[in-house]
Amino acid sequence: MMLSAKKPLRSRDLARIHILKAQLKLDDAAYRNVLWVHGRVESSADLDSHGRAAVIKHMESHLPTASVSRQNTPHNLSARDRGELQKIEALLTDADKPWAYAEAILRTQTRGQKTRMAFASSRERVGVVAALHRQAIKRLSAELLLALGEDWARIGAGIAEREFGLGDQRNFTAYPQMMSQVLRWHREMQSQSRD
């Protein structure tokens, strides 16, 4: 997956804002109020880098101290293992699932021999990433079908190319992160058109 050179930070910030909105369970009125008070805009798409930082800082300050996705996060792994954990955490956050869900997958895959992610081998963590990845693609495919219709893969790939710089449209359905980004973008456009 290749994002255009000028959009990665903006895209990451906007994705973080939408994840925080979901974690805080903000309705549209409360969300728009946060955008106006901290960024002086009515849509997150209009935020500049300072506005995005201010909105993210404000929203993160209102997260519960032990967010659902952070409970049971393994802390005793080496730095080289962090990449796998970050992938797992990103997939869990996008699916709105706790760490216990990933550990249940690990337990199933190891036939009960491993119950905590902290004790999983790198190969076992990769297996959890693969399972979460497959689930994300299945879930997002269904959501995009409902949102965009029967031709969702072609339409979604076009949106990904136009809005986020994904060059190879054939790979769109292999990237849950991009599929999720397109779905959030579509929902934001729907929300703006209702206003």
Topology:
Layout (H helix, E strand, L loop, with lengths): L7 H17 L3 H12 L9 H13 L20 H14 L3 H11 L12 H27 L3 H13 L11 H19 L1
Helix pairs in contact: 1-3, 2-3, 4-6, 5-6, 6-7, 6-8, 7-8
Write a structural description.
- By secondary structure, the chain is mostly helical.
- The protein folds into two domains: about 1-65; about 70-195, no CATH class.
- The protein has helices at about 10-25, 30-40, 50-60, 80-95, 100-110, 120-150, 150-165, 175-195.
- α5 crosses α6 (about 120-150) and α6 packs parallel to α8 (about 175-195).
Give a quick precis of the structure:
The chain has eight helices and no strands. With 195 residues, it is mainly α.
Largest sheet: none
Q: Could you tell me the radius of gyration in angstroms? A: 18 Å
The number of helical segments is 8
Q: What string gives the helices and strands in order?
A: HHHHHHHH
Helix share of residues? Answer: 55-70%
Query: What class, by secondary structure content?
Result: mainly alpha
- Cα end-to-end separation: 33 Å
Number of strands: 0
State the assembly state of the protein chains.
single chain
What is the percentage of strand-forming residues? under 5%
Give the number of domains: 2
Question: What is the typical, i.e. mean, pLDDT?
Answer: 82
Characteristic key phrases:
disordered N terminus; 0% strand; 195 residues; mainly alpha; globular; single chain; 2 domains
